[in-house]
Amino acid sequence: MDPIRSAWADQQAELASLLDGMADGDWERPTPRCPGWEVRDVVLHLAQTNEMAIGSATHRFDEVLAGLTEGLPAAIDVDAGAAAMVARDHDTPPAEIHERWRLGVGELAAVFDRADLHDRVTWVAGTLSVRTLVTTRLSESWIHTGDVGDAIGAEPAPTDRLEHVARLAWRTLPYAFAKDGRELSGPVEFDLVAPSGAAWRFVPDERAETQVTGSGAQLCQVAARRLDPTDSDLRATGPDGAAVLELVRTYA
Predict the structure, then answer these.
(1) Do 126 and 174 belong to one domain?
(2) Residues 7-46: tens digit of each pLDDT
(3) In this structure, are residues 166 and 200 in contact, taking their beta carbons and an 8 Å threshold?
């Protein structure tokens, strides 16, 4: 199996191990990292966005999104739209949410297995390759696995599959800057240490003007807005150093 599809599948298995072991009351636990959401809402959000990914990879994104947002007012941004979809279905019984997520993961796995990773598809922020779509789903699944684990006191340790997430954060820096109305002044290099101790180096074609060093797992947490860069061991030098740590992200 291609490494990115394998990493995505491993991440689903990790989350499944948490969900399968939860007691009924765990679904109502608040998630401190997602204020206002319970565990049930986080899993519901993943189920909904997995369905969007199925639509994307099968070239039915607009159709699937229309179905998911039917009856909802137009959202001012992606976050507001996601919150509205979750709020509408919040009262769904946890067992049904769990089954919806499980079935969606199974269908998405089959879709990813059949897809050409180089195919261009529609997603929230525009068009991207299926490979990048798989990576974004890996990233979001990892982020929310941590949210669920944190809420129930069983957060999994980071693994080296986060290399795909860190690379995504590096590659999408221009998008992150543009979303904030800014522009990179020059190329950026990431020189990171994996959970296993391996080196992750993401080097631009041209000489880097800004360099970020430190823990790869912490870089991913910063990009996920789950860790303040000032509380990490990350160090950034160069003209865009502070801005990179402020704006780096792995989601639309």
Answers:
(1) no
(2) 999 999 999 999 999 999 999 999 999 999 999 999 999 9
(3) yes
